[in-house]
Amino acid sequence: MAQVVIKPAQFGQGLFAVEPIVAGTVIGVATGPIINFSTALQKNDRECDALQVEPDSYLDWPDPLRLANHSCQPNCGLRNLEFVTLRDLMPGEEILWDYSTSMDEDSWTMTCLCGSPNCRGTIKDFRLLPPTLQQHYLSLGIVLPFIAEQYG
Ligand SMILES: [Zn+2]
Fold first, then answer.
1. For the whole prediction, is pTM greater than 0.70?
2. How close is the Cα of 133 to the center of ligand 1, in Å?
3. Would 106 be classed as within a structural domain?
4. Residue 110 lies in a domain
5. Which of 11, 60, 85, 98 could crosslink 74 through cysteines, CB 3.0-4.6 Å?
6. For the segment 118-134, what is each residue's pLDDT rounded down to a tens digit?
């Protein structure tokens, strides 16, 4: 985690590159205790703080990776549980990934204000993404396995 730092972001805190990071770099691995959906709900107000890894299993992951914010035009993704850069990042760029690549729960949605030209307006489950975008993320290998296997 030497290459990123926690700083104030557009909303709350975020993760930012502190040096150039080339595409394909693993900047961290998501780890933490596994909790179920109801525990995830109780633990944090909103289960979005925990990372869904199976239909009823959530990773209660700690800072700093937990603080990485969503974008509809992500520059990072979760390949299995490795946070990998999708393109070269400049110092000061925020680490952004698409929350929908880890969501299949029929519960949580969030209004998106990411500001990217292709912003979808609402963050929702992977299955509700446009099919072309699903295929794009699947081809990049950044859809969590429990979701990707339903599309294989
Ligand atoms: Zn957006």
1. yes
2. 13
3. yes
4. yes
5. 98
6. 999 999 999 999 999 99
